[in-house]
Amino acid sequence: MEYTLTADEIKKVTQLDAEQRYEYFINAVADLEKIWILTDDEGFVLVTAEDERCIPVWPHAEIAQLWIEGDWANCQAQAVDISTWLDKWTSGLEGDELSVAIFPHADEPGIVVPPAELQETLLEVMQEDSSH
């Protein structure tokens, strides 16, 4: 299911603090089953946050696209299906010693977590959702 945010919704979720954005991200991803990243000609985009190399991730294309400017003007938002993320990305990111920056916004990196922790949290929430 394709889900599009309205301008009001974008404004609302981008005004949340890092903790609230993390929670929003987990629930949105568990619900919509997609994680959005930015890619360019060389692959996915990385940022440095809390002295760690991170892949920034967002819950919606519209929010990821807010980052496509300046140095990142040649990027595009790309969806990673949740099952692909859980099957391949978690172990790949861990192998590369990368962390995940959850829903960064403005100058703030968002919550930075190890890939395994993100996977665990997503699986928990997805199980809760399916048991209701």
If you had to describe this structure to a student in words, what would you say it looks like?
This protein has a single domain (7-130), classed as Uncharacterised protein PF11572, DUF3234 (Trna Endonuclease, Chain: A, domain 1, 3-Layer(aba) Sandwich), CATH 3.40.1350.90. It is an alpha+beta fold and 132 residues long. α2 (18-32) packs across α5 and α4 runs antiparallel to α5 (115-130). The protein has helices at 7-14, 18-32, 61-65, 82-95, 115-130; strands at 34-40, 43-44, 47-49, 52-57, 76-81, 99-102, 111-113. A hairpin with a 2-residue loop joins β1 (34-40) and β2. The protein has a four-stranded mixed β-sheet. Strands 2-1-5 form a three-stranded antiparallel β-sheet. 44% of the residues lie in helices and 23% in strands.
Order of helices and strands: HHEEEEHEHEEH
| Biggest beta sheet summary | 4 strands, mixed
What is the CATH class designation?
A: Alpha Beta
Helical segment count: 5
Distance between the termini: 20 Å
The secondary-structure class comes to: alpha+beta
CATH architecture: 3-Layer(aba) Sandwich
By CATH's scheme, which homologous superfamily applies?
Uncharacterised protein PF11572, DUF3234
- CATH fold name, please? Trna Endonuclease, Chain: A, domain 1
Query: What order do the strands of the largest sheet run in, or round the barrel if closed?
Result: 3-4-6-7
Share of helical residues:
40-55%
User: What does the overall shape look like?
Assistant: globular
Low-confidence stretches: none
Mean pLDDT equals 93
Count of β-strands: 7
How many domains? 1
Strand content: 15-25%
Radius of gyration, in angstroms, nearest whole number:
14 Å
Oligomer: single chain
